[in-house]
Amino acid sequence: MKNEIDSLLRQAPLIALVQAEDTVTAVSTSRALAAGGVAVIEVLFRTDAALDCLDAVAREVPGAVVGAGTVLSAAQAEAALEAGAKFIVSPGLDEGVVDVARSAGTPVYPGVCTATELQRAYNLGLKTVKFFPASVAGGVPALKALSSVFRTMRFIPTGGVSPANLADFLAIPAVLACGGSWLTPANLIREGDFEGIGKLAREAVSIATTAIDSKG
What we know:
By secondary structure, this protein is α/β, with parallel strands linked by helices. 49% of the residues lie in helices and 15% in strands.
């Protein structure tokens, strides 16, 4: 599964965050994202319906690789895997969550924002981490500094990423992909404007493709 995720992210280095209160909205949002070229989707565990949404998207959106985000505990990680998650993302670094994902052979991307947390992740044998909250934790300059020291690590900056700075983040060689909720704004979801979400996905893919070409 890791190879499949990496392959999709090489084509479009974007992870869309989907937060929904019901399965119909989650599936419709995810279909719009996938149609727009963003095939790696992170269903956030921030609503009571998150597990059902994850299960529905995993079953009903062909071509998408669906993971669980905002996973805070080992128990949540186990539930996410049972619901069909193909990867696990956490806002912080928790060894219990990491152990559950590793035992299942599932990619896990815990969040870090300091050199101490990153060194801990490195010594746990992790190769890729989420840099969160990216803009608050120093943005592009901080990530450049961290990646110059931890030269084998790859990063997924999330939190404050937008069309305005997406190319700057992706220009950093150590960045695997960017995650963001700008692709799924609450107002468009509330209005059921899934065409608008697809448009945002296409625009992001265009920015990312240009950034990849520039990075060589």
